[in-house]
Specification:
There is one protein chain. By secondary structure, the chain is α/β, with parallel strands linked by helices. It has helices at 13-25, 44-54, 62-67, 78-90, 93-100, 134-143, 222-231, 236-240, and strands spanning 2-6, 30-33, 57-58, 105-108, 115-118, 148-151, 158-162, 168-172, 175-177, 183-187, 201-207, 212-218. The protein is globular.
Length: 246
């Protein structure tokens, strides 16, 4: 079985469409979404409709809940807050209700091995923390009981590996072969607003038979996404950063 793991679409329909086409081409069996379907971009309703139609499950991201009043926007920066407020006004009541009921995490409880999916961190996912350092990854592994966890939130693809207390490291950013006895946290990057210096859309493909994860990068029409953001009256910074992947 091949599972496509997507995250942080952020209302970027051009990027989402390109990624879903790539997923179809690679014949993934299922699609799992780790949250932040909306926020930042100009087409929240269209993206939510596409993700709902293609995903086996969708988790809550901080921007999903921020747009419907379940997260305090005081800690968002100016652009993020402006986009969240705008997004909330664009969504239909049924869409708002759907986002408000999204879960914070889910465990794949089918055939072994099981794994965890969460938008931010295995520990206290409602606090929307980032895994950006060895120390933070080590702490999260201490809370993680399963051998594998997929996350998003930072918009930066990376694989953290844990081989025991004090033995946490970066295992790579594009490819992972899962070895027995080790634990892994995989950030699949962002579909709609990458921040790793590569403007291409990013997602993960998990082959359960081969026990490997590949991070795929997909070209999309960045200029069209930028124009929609500007026409919507959203902060220009949200359009500018798409061209640079920052």
């Amino acid at each position: 079985m091949r599972l496509a793991i997507i995250s942080d679409i952020h209302s970027n329909l051009e990027a989402l469409t390109a990624v879903l086409e790539d997923i179809e081409k690679r014949r993934a069996d299922r699609v799992l979404c780790l949250g932040d379907v909306v926020g930042y971009g100009a087409e929240p309703g269209a993206c939510l409709s596409e993700v709902r139609g293609r995903s086996d499950w969708i988790l809550a991201g901080n921007h999903d809940w921020g747009a419907v009043g379940k997260v305090d926007l005081a800690y968002f920066n100016y652009s993020a807050r402006a986009a969240a407020e705008w997004t909330g006004g664009q969504l239909a009541e049924s869409e708002r209700a759907f986002l408000s009921k999204l879960p914070l995490h889910r465990i794949w409880d089918g055939p072994e091995p099981s794994f965890l999916t969460v938008h931010s961190t295995p520990d206290r996912p409602h606090e929307w923390r980032y895994i950006l350092s060895i120390d933070e990854a080590e702490y999260q592994f201490e809370q993680l009981q399963l051998p594998l966890c997929f996350v998003g939130h930072s918009h930066q693809p990376i694989v953290w590996r844990w081989e025991g207390p004090g033995k946490c490291s970066v295992a790579g950013r594009e490819y992972l072969h899962i070895e027995p006895g080790k634990r892994y946290i995989v950030n699949v990057g962002s579909v709609g607003q990458p921040r790793d210096g590569d403007p291409r859309a990013s997602y993960g493909l998990y082959d359960r038979e081969r026990q490997e994860v590949i991070i795929h990068k997909v070209e999309y029409n960045i200029a069209a996404a930028q124009q929609k953001i500007l026409r919507a009256g959203l902060p220009p910074r949200l359009a500018e950063r798409l061209a640079h992947g920052v």
